[in-house]
Design goal:
Blueprint: H1 7-17, H2 26-40, H3 46-54, H4 63-85, E1 109-114, H5 120-138, E2 142-146, H6 152-161, E3 168-172, H7 175-178, H8 186-198, H9 207-219, E4 231-234, E5 240-241, H10 249-255, E6 260-262, E7 265-266, H11 276-286, H12 297-301, H13 307-312, E8 320-321, E9 326-329, H14 330-333, H15 336-348, H16 350-353, H17 358-369, E10 375-377, E11 383-385, E12 388-390, H18 422-429, H19 432-435
Parallel strand pairs: 1-2, 1-4, 2-3, 6-10
Antiparallel strand pairs: 4-9, 5-11, 6-9, 7-8, 11-12
Helix pairs in contact: 4-18, 9-17, 11-15
The structure holds guanosine-5'-diphosphate and manganese (II) ion.
The site of manganese (II) ion has 3 residues, from loops.
């Protein structure tokens, strides 16, 4: 996982902060936060928003920063635990659609996974759990994609585990949406990946992983098989669901104007996205009208919990939604800002010359172009993808959850607690209304 970059890097980052006013005490940080809030509610002005994107969230410097980092991590861990310790069941909104409702399962939606033939057991495990906890009640179709043809054995395994009337699309991805584009310089790719590999970036030398990240960033929603769908819930082999979901999650998205739903938010390996922020800022400066004045800017400009990440990327926290779980309104991905942003990223070649993940790419687009009130943390959806978990508490006596996860425990590995970005999301991106929704 992320390697440390040493004190020199941190110092370098802190010199940068000195350009803005020097602050250190909690009071001062508070003041800064308040002024951020004021800025957000000012009338729409492109320059203002760009300024905000060029500033770190916390102005703090020198030796104070190390103490402040530790204090912030403690505070953040507390905030996270406290929220997940509150017993919850489902969103407190009117109009949830349940199993016996005539329109149950009638959302324009599909559950989707990219998967290889060899991973059939692992995807069967995921689908089994999702059926038990959610989809047996709502019967949404599945869409499985692969750059190779699915074998008959694979298809039989999937269809035979599901009710006969359940729709399953098996789709073959076109080579042009999967393989390395012609204009990628393979010599440069190899040189750069040797370096990233030495920097311990996971999957750096695995070309299929680069293809996968590009595919999930900019290609999957163009596949013909998704043409008539509006919402996609992405799943993966080998993940777990631990609590019942008794309402139609897609129609919840629609009724409540949500365009994106997530369960986990993490820091990324900064070596994998070294230039992504500068490339993104370049795009935004050319297209400031795409910025949403209610974007989640604080979350991407947070610079204190893992300052080395912010420094190495020249200004991006590396906070992202963990896209192995995502419920996304495809109209957002098909929108002009998102598509133009993808064109811009594609031109830079960073899916191959670096190892840009679809998660930071999707997350930057959402943080910049979407209204944060339209992004929903599914606190109630108990989800695990190694090594992280979103695990809510249940009211006494509730049988909603199966007890296979521990409420509030983000990771079983203590050294990974620092990788949790959700506290920053909670503090800066969630309104009272959102906090009160459970
Ligand atoms: P990680 O979660 O970042 O470690 O990556 P995964 O190995 O879980 O891959 C992410 C998703 O892409 C999963 O749904 C995989 O099944 C899928 N995936 C990864 N590589 C390939 C590939 O080469 N071909 C296909 N068809 N799917 C892939
Ligand atoms: Mn995975």
């Amino acid at each position: 996982s992320n390697s440390t970059t040493g004190d020199a890097k941190v110092d370098e980052a802190l010199i940068h902060y000195q350009e803005s006013q020097l602050t250190s005490s909690e009071d001062e940080i508070k003041k800064l936060e308040d002024s951020e809030i004021e800025q957000t509610s000012m009338p729409f002005e492109d320059d203002n928003l760009i300024n905000k994107l060029e500033r770190p969230l916390y102005a703090i410097s020198g030796a104070e920063a190390a103490n402040a980092s530790n204090a912030l991590l403690l505070e953040n861990t507390e905030i996270y635990k406290k929220l997940l310790d509150e017993p919850i069941t489902e969103p407190k909104v009117g109009g949830l659609i349940r199993e016996n409702d005539p329109v149950a399962g009638k959302g324009n939606a599909t559950i989707m996974a990219l998967v290889q033939n060899k991973d059939v057991d692992a995807i069967v495990g995921t689908i089994q759990q999702l059926e038990e906890k959610f989809n047996a009640k709502f019967a949404y179709p599945y869409t499985l994609m692969n750059e190779e043809y699915f074998t008959d054995e694979f298809k039989n395994r999937i269809t035979s585990m599901l009710p006969v009337d359940r729709v399953v699309h098996f789709a073959k991805i076109d080579s042009e949406d999967w393989d390395v584009p012609e204009d990628i310089d393979m010599k440069k790719y190899k040189e750069n990946m040797n370096q990233l590999d030495r920097d311990s970036v996971q999957y750096a030398k695995k070309i299929s992983y680069h293809n996968m990240c590009r595919f999930y960033s900019s290609k999957f929603y163009h596949q013909d098989v998704l043409n008539n769908y509006k919402y996609v819930w992405r799943i993966e082999p080998n993940v777990n669901f631990y609590c019942d979901i008794d309402y139609d999650i897609f129609q919840f998205m629609e009724e409540n104007q949500k365009i994106y739903g997530f369960t986990l938010s993490l820091y990324d390996s900064p070596q994998s996205v070294r230039s992504l922020w500068n490339v993104t800022l370049g795009f935004v400066k050319e297209n400031p009208h795409y910025l949403n004045r209610n974007g989640a800017f604080e979350w991407i400009k947070e610079n204190l919990q893992k300052p080395e990440n912010f420094n190495m990327t020249d200004g991006y926290s590396t906070c992202h939604f963990w896209t192995n779980f995502e419920i996304v309104d495809l109209d957002f991905l098909r929108s002009e800002p998102y598509e133009k942003y993808m064109d811009h990223l594609e031109k830079q070649g960073g899916f191959y010359y670096e190892r840009w993940g679809d998660a930071p790419v999707r997350s930057l687009a959402l943080a910049l172009f979407a209204d944060k009130s339209q992004i929903h943390w599914f606190r109630d959806v108990a989800y695990h993808h190694f090594p992280y978990t979103n695990c809510p508490s249940s009211p006494m006596g509730s049988r909603r959850c199966d007890g296979k996860c521990t409420p509030g425990v983000f990771s079983a590995y203590d050294n990974l607690i620092v990788e949790n970005c959700l506290p920053t999301w909670i503090k800066y991106s969630m309104s009272e209304e959102q906090l009160d929704m459970y």
